[in-house]
Every structure is written in structure tokens, then in C-alpha cells.
Amino acid sequence: MGGITIIDLMTDPQLFGKQFRGPSFEAWRVLLAGFYGLPLTDEQAVVWHELTGRDKPAGPHDELWQAIGRRGGKTQIAALLAVYEACFRDHAPKLSPGEVATVMCIAADRKQSRSLMRYIVGLMESNPMLKRLIVRQDRESLELSNRCVIEIAAASFRSVRGYTLRAVLCDEIAFWRSDESANPDSEIIAALRPALATLNGPLIALSSPYAKRGELWHNYRRHFATDSPVLVAQAPSRTMNPGLPQRVVDAAKDRDPVAAASEYGAEFRSDIQSFIDPVLLDSLTRSEPAVLPPAPGIKYTAFADPSGGGPDGFSLAICHRERDTVIVDLVTERTRTNPASVVSEYCKILQQYRIQVVGGDKYAGQWVANEFSRHGVRYNYSAKNRSELYIDTLAMLNAGEVELPPVDKLARQFANLERRTSRSGRDSIDHPPGLHDDLANAVAGAVVSQQKDRQCITPIFGQVRTL
């Protein structure tokens, strides 16, 4: 099927012209034509400049990074590009016997990747010629008779190795989050590029923008409006999808102007920043051991972050002070476990460190305090919320007053924390949507509780305890 361009695919009524030929996809046609090195008219060159900041195409390009507003048609276009790269680009001559080319479509999680697969299957099955190419189909892959496979995957650097890639489609890359890594997008992209080298395939990322960090932001900052093999485009939702009602955008602006500017205006958010520098965390982390055993003559402090037994962890941290440094002796968590049994287990650990009082937040009201009390441990409510604990902890980290244990998950949770600035100018610290901070919260509470002359724990009965 060689000789068919991406514009042919979008405009030919025998292919997908009925879906992509209309005026609402004109901006997409201009962008993709320029990406693949196709000529543009003078009128299209104006649209090209609006999208890319460049005067004229210099393609074909190796990579395409797109910061596009929500409901701008990104998933439909990702599906179209997957079909184009799998069915209309010649790859067989470069394959070794038995080798297959893979068009990999990666999304933030499996639910989103399967949504993309439904679009792909819909396009393939809507055209009798393409439907005949399908040899085998399951929920996560389409095997084609031309020695190509279209496969979906969740965003994990472990799932993308070992392939010969015809092309990679990265869906909503600005929202790739992982408890396994503080920089999952960077690690995944680094793993993908060598796999694209054999077939010289393109890397295409489509996403609504988010904070000024990550691969989308870095490529935007380096390559937008520059003469580079890496093409970067930025456009509001209604530029790419004029059919999106203006009232939807206006309603979003009324609710939250800053969020709407990002979601529909395709602007990177300046109100969200990384909270802690991973380099700082690494410099404060001891090499070993992960757990320091209890020692005589030392006064230990503990803090717990309870959960109800679901995916959130029920965590515990223990620390002590040595001169001007707070040493985190232990941090641990339990997930998907009966909370009462976790309390029982943690109380045994607390007894080993001679701890009779544990701090924590007001999760589940009186239940947590009562459960600890059953085992002879008093549970004191923290006078600070988690955001305040993180802010105090950051000051101590910046001053070099904390020693952290070598626990990778703890470091990732700290590194993933976000500082958000509200319209009133007030800062808050929290984990990104979909991630967790149970270990980090427990450590922050334990560390802050060791500050000298700091009122940090409010007992259940309303008194204030100064450490």
C-alpha cells in the first residue's frame, strides 16, 4: 500500500475521507502534512506558523511533540497515525526473517490505552481493505498480515523493551505517572528511541500540557519555533477542533481560569512546580542500612499515615535526633491489608523502639486512636496538615538536617510531590493525581515532630505537647 500519504488517508473517500476530510480537521491535516514533509499552500503555511511557530516545513521530521488542548481530537489522530504507520509505510525490507514491526501506542494506564485501541480497531474494521489485513486480534494488539503488529501498552519503562518499532504513539504523555519512578516519561522515551532506530520510525507524542516539567515541556522549551528535526506544535482545543462549543470552554474558565488555560488553551501551568529536588534527596540518603535497629539510650519518635486497607498504604516512620540531624531509622507500609492487623503489627514495632506515643492525622476519626489504644499506644493527632508538614520538612532538608533511609519508593514519593499555588496565592503540597505519598507523609510527620521547641502534635484531649 505504498505511495499513499497521510493526507490521502485523511481525504480519500475510499479510505477515511468521510471522517477526516471536513473543515474541522484542517489544522490537523496541515500539521501532519508538514510533519511528513508534504508541501503546503500559502494559506496552509499561515496555519502551520500558528501551530509550530515556524515559517515553513523542513520535514520529514523524526519526532512530533504536540501540546493540544482537551477534546482537540488527539486520540482520534493517534489512532489514525497508528493505522497509517502500520498499513501504509513500507517496513518489511528492513526486517530480519521472523521479525515483526510494532506500532506501539502508549497511554497513562491500561484503561486509556484500551480506549485508544477501540479507535484503532474501529478504523481498521470500517475499511474492508484494511480489515482483511487483520490476522489476529485481542484486547491489546492487532496482528496484521504485513508483518506488523499494533500494540497498546501502559506507561512503564519495563513494558517497552525488546521491540523493533515501526512507530511510537505516546498518548497524554504529560500525565504519565508512576509510583515506580519520579520521571517515568523520560525513562520510557529513553528506552524507546533505540528500538526505533532499525526502521527509522517516528516518535509522536500527543498531550494536553500540564506543569513545566517532563518530556513534553522540555521538548517544547528546546524545539518550539526553531528549525529542528524535532517538531513541536501547540494549539488550543478549538483550533484543532472548531466543533467544540465555546460554552464548554467558557464554563471551564468560570470554574478555574488557570486550569482552563491549560486544559483548553494548551498553556503549560505555572502554578504547579516540583516540590523537592531529587538531587537533594539523594545527597541526604544514607547508603545503608534501610532500617536502623533500636539502640539503648535513644529517644525515638513515630508518625503513622493510616489507610482503610485499599490501594493507599498504611505507613509508619520512626526517627531520632543526633545533634542537629534527624535520623529516619525506619519507614514501612502495608497495603490491601486489614487495618486492625496493621495496627497490631506496628505496635509491636513501636514497643521495640520503646515508643508509647505515635503521631498521625485524623484519618477515620476516633477509630485509629482507639485501635492503637487497645495495644497500649496513644495516638496523637497532628496539629499540622500534610501540606504544612511537607513545607516544614523541606526547610529541614534544605538545611541538611535530615538523614533519609535508602528506600527507593520513599525517594520517588518525595520527588513526585507538587507545589500548587492557588488564586489567593497560598501554596499547598500534595501528590499528583493517581499517585500516593503514604511513606513520604509518615516520614515528614516523624521528622517535623523531632524539631526542637516546635509545637507539632496535638493530643486527642486538646492539649498541646511541645517536644
TrEMBL record:
<dbReference type="InterPro" id="IPR027417">
    <property type="entry name" value="P-loop_NTPase"/>
</dbReference>
<protein>
    <recommendedName>
        <fullName>Phage terminase-like protein, large subunit, contains N-terminal HTH domain</fullName>
    </recommendedName>
</protein>
